[in-house]
Amino acid sequence: MTTQNPKYRPFPAVKMTHRTWPDRVIKQAPTWCSVDLRDGNQALAVPMSVEEKIEFFELLVKLGFKEIEIGFPSASQIEFDFARRLIDEKRIPDDVWVQVLVQCKEELIARTFEALQGCPRAILHLYNSTSPAQRRITFGIDKQGVIDIAVRGTKLVKERVSSVPETKIRFEYSPESFFATEVEFALEICEAVGEAWGYTEAEPIIFNLPSTVEMSTPNHYADMIEWFITHQKYPERAIISLHTHNDRGTGVAATELGMMAGATRVEGTLFGNGERTGNLDIVTVALNLLTQGVDPELDFSRLPAIREIYERTTKLEVPPRWPYSGDLVFTAFSGSHQDAINKGLKDRTAHPDWSWEVPYLSIDPHDIGRSYRAIIRINSQSGKGGVAYVMEQEFGYQLPKAMHRDFGRIINREADRLGEELPPEDILKLFKDEYLDREEPRKLASETVRQSREGDQVEIEATILIFNLVTKKSDSIEIIKGRGNGPVDAFVKALIKSGVEPFEVVSYSEHSLGSGAEAKAVAYFEIKAGPGPSVFGAATDTNIEVASLKAILSALNRVPK
Q: Nearest 5 degrees, angle CA 19-CA 25-CA 29?
């Protein structure tokens, strides 16, 4: 049984019997219009200065925006001055349209055209509120009164166009609060505006249909967009534009469904800055398109640098889990995730020409200027695969698979003890302390190994320093000798002959560490001594055979006493 809270009522759905948008696929990017410098800027606790706005404008141009709303010139002197700076200093590229917002008031329209003097091309964006709540509460007028305001404003704009003969003007109209407006009335007022403007196929009007406040699930918004498009008298005379906010957290979904419903233009901001919960995040929608093989026609290949300018000029921070751009979005702490990512990246290396398919990564971080360095980070929830990934990617140590669990336990224990994430440098230090620098109670004296071969046998002689586990100082030296079918076999037999508890080598691997004449070799050994579990050791040296002998001692030194 369901109950209805009388304080709220469900959103009235549009009656659609033959909707087509659910079956459509987005195959090309929309026309993007950035409203960072107007809608975004007005939402800042400390609005941008003119210099900051200029820097942000230049960023938007570099990213590939061809339509940029630069402000509300009639609202304040700083908005007016910014428009004039762009025009007077000829900062507007030949292929970019600047957009200015204005209400349906004669004095504001006149001031707006003053700001546009000398501008090569501009979109004049007129709006007025149309929803029942706005009509009843804010303005106290009926539907016809709202239509009259919009038509009168449109005619005033049209009359003023002749005052800027050097400027090519395009016209945009927004029935503000479209999502909360009866869709039939929204269409009625838009078509009245279109008639007043004199829209044609050659010079189409932009009908911007905003989700000024999200009122319901994004499928309802898509229904409204499709209904509007399919019920127009002259659909070829209009460009349908979307402008979604994020009050319900579905601004991106609403925009994508609205595009599926037929809209071809999208307004939004970088990283979703805007009033209340923000505007649509254009970065997210654009990169969503990229992951589907659609060219977004915007360049986000240097996303960290874009974010730096955004955060510095807006004084806002991109949350760590924000799609694509947050610090942690390409970071895995979960052990199973780390293992899958590690294997996926190796598979990618083996098949670089295949389509992108790496578990838990919907996009290649390199495509947006992010690094693989941050993909796997280690805390107490991390698994053995993640630790191995960090060791290989950061420092070149290719731990054998059997060793992953052993070292992973050490890292997890330390992360648990600290209660925080372990940076790569701390992981390397633990590896050195636990394996490479494990020299007690036995250490191979430098350059003391001598080998001789008789037939298929190798004879080895080595000097071992014996450390006192209490004083941590070497208190004796032991020379050991042994014979075997190779240096490792001979060394193992020499150790056992000297009195070391018998053990066997279970597994062994090696690889170079670095390149060039100074490159070292690293050796890993797994040994089994007594009834306990096998034990791992590791060591490095410029001589691979010496590294192997050191690694055997490393493992022996780790055998529980």
A: 120
- Tokens representing 338? 């780390």
Per-residue pLDDT at 517: 65
Architecture of the CATH domain 28-314: Alpha-Beta Barrel (3.20)
- CA atoms within 13 Å, Cβ hemisphere of 298: 30
Q: Predicted confidence band at 337 (pLDDT cuts at 50, 70, 90)? A: confident
* DSSP H or E run through 525: strand 520-528
**pLDDT category, 561, cuts 50, 70, 90?**
confident
Share of the chain above pLDDT 70, in %: 95
The conformational region for residue 516 under phi > 0 = left, psi -120 to 50 = alpha, else beta, is left
Distance CA 389, CA 154 (A): 62
Count of other CB atoms within 10 angstroms of residue 55: 14
- Scored b (16 or more CB within 10 A) or e, 212-222 reads bbbbbbbbbbb
pLDDT tens, position by position, 339-359: 888 889 889 999 999 999 999
| Residue 470, C-beta contacts closer than 8 angstroms, at least 6 positions apart | none
Instruction: Give the pLDDT confidence of 100-141 residue by residue, as tens digits.
Output: 999 999 999 999 999 999 999 999 999 999 999 999 999 999
pLDDT-derived band at 375, boundaries 50, 70, 90? low
Helix axes 251-260, 282-291, angle to 10 degrees: 60
CA–chain centroid gap for 20, Å, is 32
360 contacts: CB under 8 Å, gap ≥ 6 = 332, 337, 340, 341, 344
- DSSP classification of residue 81: H
Q: What pLDDT shows up at residue 529? A: 86
Annotated domain spans of the chain: 28-314, 335-435, 442-557
Residue type, 114: E
C-alpha 22/C-alpha 303 separation (Å) is 31
- CA neighbours within 13 Å on the CB side: how many for 534? 18
Closest CA to 214 of 284, 173, 274: 274
Per-residue pLDDT tens over the stretch 265-317: 999 999 999 999 999 999 999 999 999 999 999 999 999 999 999 999 999 99
Which helix (H) or strand (E) segment is 239 a member of?
Answer: strand 238-244
- Kindly report the CATH class assigned to 442-557: alpha beta
Note every long-range contact of 499-508, with CB atoms under 8 Å and residues 24 or more positions apart, other chains counting.
500/556, 501/529, 501/530, 501/559, 502/529, 503/527, 503/528, 503/529, 503/530, 503/556, 503/559, 504/528, 504/529, 505/552, 506/402, 506/534, 507/400, 507/402, 508/548
